[in-house]
Amino acid sequence: MEKQFLALVVREQADGSFTRSIDQRTIDDLPEGDVLVRVLYSSLNYKDALSASGNKGVTKTYPHTPGIDAAGVVEESRSADFQPGAEVLVSGYELGVSIPGGFGQFIRVPADRVMPRPEGLTLYESMVYGTAGFTAAASVAALIESGVSSGDGPVLVTGATGGVGSFAVALLAREGYEVVAATGKLEQRDYLTRLGASEVIHRQELLEGAGRPLLKSRWAGVVDTVGGAYLAAAIAAARYQGTVTACGNAAGAELHTTVFPFILRGVRLLGIDTAQLPLPQRKTLWQRIAGEWKLPGLEQIGRRVSFAELDAEIERILTGGQTGRVVVDLWAD
Q: Is the CB of residue 9 less than 8 Å from the CB of residue 30?
């Protein structure tokens, strides 16, 4: 009898609506691949919530199982690089977007998309980071590599209570930067201060004077996680030769700005993509996360939920209510 397992399945209905349910699946339902992984933990990212809601800009074909992150144990392998029992991570590429993802208890993927668990992180800790923490690390690394140093002035993080934002605040503070955290949830000020924020401001403060080509020079660097008007305002307020990284679009995909910040202040805008990052670069960044950038108190950022609780968490993140990171325990009762 073919091995059965549980997975969150999103289906498109005849009227164009979408439903979610935890269904029983079989290994035969999975695509071909070199490595079959028993998924122990996944994590909830904004992209997962969009896929789980029927967003055709993320996932074009349904029924579908979201989950762009997975951490687990190799069950079967046709690759000499991975033996049964090995602990591994899978994230990015098309996992949870066009092929069944980490919201299922098993996944099957090509061997070149599988990475050994970084030494220094447990499987659970790796999913506290997940794509959000990995993206934050990529953003901070880009700021450092572009020449923004801790003595240059404040660094802004938008969407600071979200997954990417939380990790960006903590990593920047660990590197000695003066971090200004912008959020719509000022009731989370203590949370952000514990992560290392020097100052917490309401996100609407960023939009004061918005629409002008240049604003008062303020930010040596920016980790923008939300896009839209907040990204445009951050660019306009960046200091001379400041660097702005962009990795999200929860506040809008359009960017209305002018060339003036770039040609008068030499501002640099860097796009951050981790979904297609080549495996060697992915491994290097994960090793940094597991080493010098491993944060104390990960329990402050991560929150474990069961499969049964996942649906409510999807609604929470879509309405902007999530704080920190949600780790999904695929085998919890």
A: no
